[in-house]
From TrEMBL:
Family listed: Belongs to the cytochrome ubiquinol oxidase subunit 1 family.
GO biological process, one term: aerobic electron transport chain
UniProt source species: Rubrobacter taiwanensis
GO MF assignments: electron transfer activity; metal ion binding
Keyword field contains Transport: yes
Main location group: membrane
UniProt entry tagged with the keyword Metal-binding: yes
Alphabetized UniProt keyword annotations: Cell membrane, Electron transport, Heme, Iron, Membrane, Metal-binding, Transmembrane, Transmembrane helix, Transport
Pfam families: Cyt_bd_oxida_I (PF01654)
Subcellular location: Cell membrane
Membrane-spanning intervals of the chain: 15-39, 60-90, 96-119, 131-158, 185-202, 223-242, 262-284, 349-367, 382-403
Protein name: Cytochrome BD quinol oxidase subunit I
Record GO cellular component, one term: cytochrome complex
Length: 448
């Protein structure tokens, strides 16, 4: 059997890798974000002497410990599948990023050791709380460093550096590494925050004891601060990432923004609109329970909700009448029928910037109210459903973003690349015009 010809029945090897990678990312992103959130919460509990922060931090740390085994198993399965199904491609990546993979492995090992130690010595270090908090932040640091190593590889696959493959520094710091790393760094906290808020809402609706209702009401608020606070930064960071792709891999940019896969960007905007409007509505609702009445701030928040809906709507308008050609959703003359309000400049820019400005404004006035204090335990059912909606939608957002980035290299399968302009989907090596300067002999010797 020729190397690399192995396939997976029914599902196919491309879909198999996609499912394994996406599932692993959903686990790993939550773990990385949750560890930092838990460590920060423990520190807040130490400083403010409020037991709810300590209870939350310990519960979240316990969940991370239970989740870690599943995330690690998925990572190992993905690597084995990649080696087996795409051996030529993996051999090339291993040659370029051997030291990066090695560092990532030790960062992952360090994260496992510190996370388990952090949770297991919680009671033993109860009187040395500062040291214990440091353990949590060190675990978070290892996770972020492991993510950074993988981001170097992922960004290189879409925008390989215009330098010889042996130049590790240029390969690592390729054209989209920094914006991708920023995008995922911020995204981890927003993703974890929304999931925490959704879980808290579900528990709040099921709780019958008053103290539990107060705790889960507060927990939903705390998760939303993280979730919305970081997610609202994504429009400007995402723009920077798209700009880097356009400059380095213009054909890939055209696929996801102007070609048959442009609907993926509109779908992302649908998810962002839902999360933005639901989050602002939740904050507006919570202001009713402020310890000190804030009618002026509430009225300003009502206006902000209207503006968030308006700016979100601008982002939802497609640029042309070819909505989802794969499903036959094409009207009039398709791509030739342009929709003026759907153009990137200036309407999409206005929509994205407007969402971010309104979001930051609402978050600022909400944090001002938070400093005054809230009455907990009286939130309405619809506000909790808003939190759970955000939790579901943020998962869909992660999946859509992953699909959008990875499908960009396929160039509608004409020819489609595993490594942009270097290695095709059939693992055939491009000998001319490859930005990385790949040559067939470079993949003969294996890793190292």
């Amino acid at each position: 059997m020729p190397i690399g010809d192995l396939d997976v029945p029914v599902l196919g090897k491309n879909a198999t890798i996609a499912v394994l990678v996406q599932t692993h990312i959903l686990f790993a992103a939550f773990i990385i974000g949750a560890v930092i959130i838990a460590a920060t919460s423990e520190y807040m509990g130490m400083v403010t002497k409020q037991p709810k922060y300590e209870r939350f931090a310990r519960s979240l740390a316990r969940f991370v410990v239970l989740l870690f085994a599943s995330g690690a198993a998925l990572a190992i399965t993905f690597v084995l599948a990649l080696i087996t199904l795409f051996p030529v491609f993996f051999s090339y990546l291993q040659n370029i990023f051997f030291w990066v993979f090695l560092v990532e492995a030790f960062m992952f090992l360090g994260q496992i050791i510190i996370v388990y130690a952090w949770y297991n010595v919680w009671d033993k270090l109860a009187y040395r709380k500062s040291l214990h908090v440091v353990f949590g932040f060190i675990a978070g640091f290892f996770g972020l460093m492991a993510m950074t190593m993988i981001n170097a590889v992922a960004s290189y696959m879409l925008t390989p550096a215009e330098a010889p493959a042996t130049d590790l520094g240029r390969a690592f710091l390729n054209q989209t590494f920094v914006p991708l790393n920023m995008h995922r760094f911020v995204g981890n906290f927003g993703y974890a925050g929304f999931l925490i808020a959704g879980w808290a809402a579900w528990r709040y609706l099921r709780s019958v004891r008053e103290d539990d209702r107060e705790y889960y009401d507060w927990m939903g608020h705390w998760g939303m601060i993280w979730g919305f606070g970081f997610t609202i930064l994504q429009p400007v960071i995402g723009y920077g990432y798209l700009k880097a792709i356009r400059e380095s891999s213009p054909e890939a940019f055209n696929v996801i923004m102007l070609g048959d896969k442009a609907w993926t960007f509109n779908l992302l905007m649908v998810w962002m609109a839902i999360m933005g409007v639901a989050s602002v509505a939740y904050f507006l609702h919570r202001l009713r329970f402020a310890v000190r009445p804030m009618e002026t701030i509430r009225k300003m928040s009502v206006g902000a909700l209207a503006f968030m809906a308006l700016f979100s709507a601008l982002n939802l308008i497609p640029s042309n009448a070819s909505l989802v050609p794969q499903l036959g959703l094409v009207f009039a003359d398709g791509q030739d029928t342009l929709i003026p309000l759907g153009s990137m400049y200036p309407w999409k820019y206005i929509g994205l910037i407007g969402m971010m400005i309104v979001g930051l404004f609402v978050l600022a006035i909400y944090l001002k109210a938070t400093a005054e204090g809230f009455h907990w335990g009286g939130s309405s059912r619809w506000s909790q459903w808003a939190l759970m909606t955000c939790a579901v939608v943020v998962v869909l957002t992660m999946i859509t973003m992953g699909y959008t980035r990875e499908t960009a290299r396929r160039l509608d399968d004409d020819p489609g690349y595993l490594l942009y302009n270097c290695i095709t989907m059939d693992q055939e090596i491009v000998q001319e015009g490859c930005p990385a300067g790949v040559a067939p002999e470079e993949v003969q010797g294996g890793g190292g």
